[in-house]
Specification:
Blueprint lengths: L1 H9 L4 E3 L1 H8 L5 H10 L1 E4 L1 H15 L5 H18 E4 L5 H11 L3 H13 L2 E4 L2 H9 L4 E3 L2
Parallel strand pairs: 1-2, 1-4, 2-3, 4-5
Helix pairs in contact: 2-3, 2-4, 4-5, 6-7
Amino acid sequence: MRVELLRGLRGRIVIVIDASALAKFILKEEGWERIADFLRAGTISVDHIVKEVANVIWRRLMRKEISLEDARRMFEAMREVIGKAVVIEDEMDYIDDAFEISIRRGVTVYDSLYIALSGNMKLKLLTADEVQAQAASAEEVHTIILR
């Protein structure tokens, strides 16, 4: 129903992407090229991803791991990638399911939002977070773990 409408509007959606995977791509961490293939194929996420990835960039800046110029460049890259390659869903549509998943599996509500979206859309979850992947598996959500 809704996913079919989204597919028609933005092309074919093949996977849910979480913040750990998108941050890995934006920061060009080891294996980032693999994520580009998923972004080209079609991804979807909850709006919380914007805040999480922006926070990863900020944290790297605060730890002096990147320059202010690099942080701004990465932030703009994040906005561009999300604008062009990630269909964004309202987290409020999944918060109830996410809260219950977080209680059952002992993972954060943040992580559970991606699991709830994946389960609802019947799509795999792309993540670099092993704990989240285990919780997703327990919820019968298939994952692709980036190592």
